Amino acid sequence: MKYIFNIKRIFTLFAFLFSLTAFAQKKIHVYKIADLQKRIENNNDTLYIVNFWATWCKPCVAELPDFEKINNEYKTKKVKVLLVSMDFREDMKKRVIPFLKKNKYTTETVLLDETDGSFIDKISKDWSGAIPGTLFIKNQTKEFVNKKIGYEFLNERINFYSK
User: Is 25-161 a CATH 2.40.50.140 domain?
Assistant: First the structure.
């Protein structure tokens, strides 16, 4: 009987540890603008949805659950959601990673390490530099939306680019 009790405790411990790692954000890569451009401008038939956000931006944080939901729903399709944190590099370990873990976000996240605004036009001429902002890019087509967006809008744009 004691043996069965110990097996149950061990199983419970492994289940708990697995649940923690299932939602843990993988290592966040730090990108310069050239790295990000190389990543998203690969001219293939995958739709990239690139959301620019920061932990200190309330509208950004409010829309992240919709990006997470879209990421989970379309992960087997030719749709790739990429969250680009605009937080300072030195805040990555104390703010960004804990925020992602706390909210159990699994969508791939990178941190854009740029200190001046010269990168903005390299993303889109339509971007004012304000966040939240979202870039939709597929093949040679780019669309930048410089406002908070939600689940319905994301689905609408995915359907548009899937034609």
Answer: no
